[in-house]
Amino acid sequence: MENELQTLRHSASHVMAQAMKRLYPGVKLAIGPAIDSGFYYDFDLEQSIGAEDLEAIEKEMKKIAKENLKIERFELPRAEALELMKDEPYKVELINELPEDAVISFYKQGEFVDLCAGPHVNYTGKVKAVKLLSVTGAYWRGDEKNKMLTRIYGTAFQNKTALSEHLEQLEEAKKRDHNKLGRELELFTTVDYIGQGLPILLPKGARIIQLLQRFVEDEEQKRGWQLTKTPFMAKSDLYKISGHWDHYRDGMFVLGDPDNDKEVYALRPMTCPFQYQAFLNRGRSYRDLPMRLNETSTLFRNEASGEMHGLIRLRQFTISEGHLICTPEQLEDEFRGCLELTAFMLETLGLAEDVSYRFSQWDPNDREKYIGTEEQWDEAQSKMKTILDDLGLDYKVGVGEAAFYGPKLDIQIKNVFGKEDTLITIQIDQMLAEKFGMEYVDRDGTKKNPYIIHRTSIGCYERTLALLIEKYAGAFPVWMAPVQVKVLPISDKYMDYAADVRSELEKHGIRVEVDTRKEKIGYKIREARLEKVPYMLIVGEKEAEDGAVSVRDRKKGDIGSVKLDEFITMILEKISTKAKE
Questions:
Q1: Is 166 annotated as a binding residue?
Q2: Is residue 454 part of an annotated ligand binding site?
Q3: Distance between CA 102 and CA 78 in Å, rounded?
Q4: Which of 104, 189, 241, 470 could tie 81 with a disulfide, CB 3.0–4.6 Å?
Q5: What is the pTM of this model?
């Protein structure tokens, strides 16, 4: 069924390309694959088009579907294929890159012909339940040095009912989209003259990040992790030792001219070579291991402009980074401990059920991307496979997804639109210790290089915040809500009592605000609900006389009047247990 749907969506991309050729005769075709959520096609257009043009394109697609054109495959020798596509420069480029003995296949539907490996449905009439969703820019082959093309996204299903259900889900996703909701709730903002991928965390968003950081650092301390604090930048010498200068420099912000300056610095894209200095500070023996070093690290990565999105992909971000230095005998238990830590974090945050696992390996056919020998990679990957299998972890393999210095376990998570990103990584590394001369004296008196586990416990804080916004639609669990209680006095006469309530709540560390505006209570309640505050405490004459509050839950509605100390006991229980509601 899944393969049938992918075939239908691939055919829908061709129907869209045919519609574009009819409506915009000068358009040049790039590529148009099916994707998990639908399909897209990249076009080189002389004029710009926007969302308002999608209706006309969709109308032409429906016309092509009604024509019920037969979709036929045919093959050509290279010379004839190039002649056929001579007016399509992107197709010519793709043909020229095919191996000499490759089968060059095309698909024809009516007047439209496209270079394609297939497969496709038999007739355009099957592409009925289709919807174009958005138009955006995309660099040819994802390289910002290439031309910016016009990408149109769409989706298709086998019937209109399935399409309608999907579109309803998309509408719900739009309501939860962190990029929209996070701004509406005043959690973060962005400013053009500051730059892409550099968000400003507003007070409420900054408070949530602070709560998460304190939670992570306290939990890591309980598990034997030692905190470090390292510089945001270093001389290129450091990155040359680690290999980042040769394998990651394009992703770094370099300060100075590498060709002319004697001392060139770069902002750190990761913390590992800095934290190793804590191990190297003095001689070590096996008795010092395992050494668990953690840091709340601000990192800088020179991501492409087209990759920036809300809080998901940034140029400056903060991560719960750690490096664990251990003996070979300790490796499996320590890896298990790292995985248990991430599982605890994900379960506490309410994200555990949404993740999947990828065993990211090297690509032996692309040796330039990596350091180390084939034997070292085989050993590291073999050890990691043994560990993952012993743990009974259900994972997929991602060839070519490893870090340049070692294999890794990527904990993947999807946003509300179904796009998958890496949230947490745990990596095994036996190469950088040797590069930095990291040694310990073993029981037999010989010096050995330790293994290193690179890991995050909660991943990138900003990305985690984005996922939490979407998971809870902004209605965060009480323990992480930036404002936990809103006190709503019925009138000015009860402002003093409202202030007393706030003062008592604050004594217990509860985050509280008082709505002092001269508005009707119904308006104040609606405003607090829009802000998704967990609890509203309405106070008037009766509450002031009884030392009570009238409690309104954001989900359950009116709970009734309770003594203030009873309410405090109840909310403190939810905060201390980190209840997910």
A1: no
A2: yes
A3: 9
A4: 104
A5: 0.84
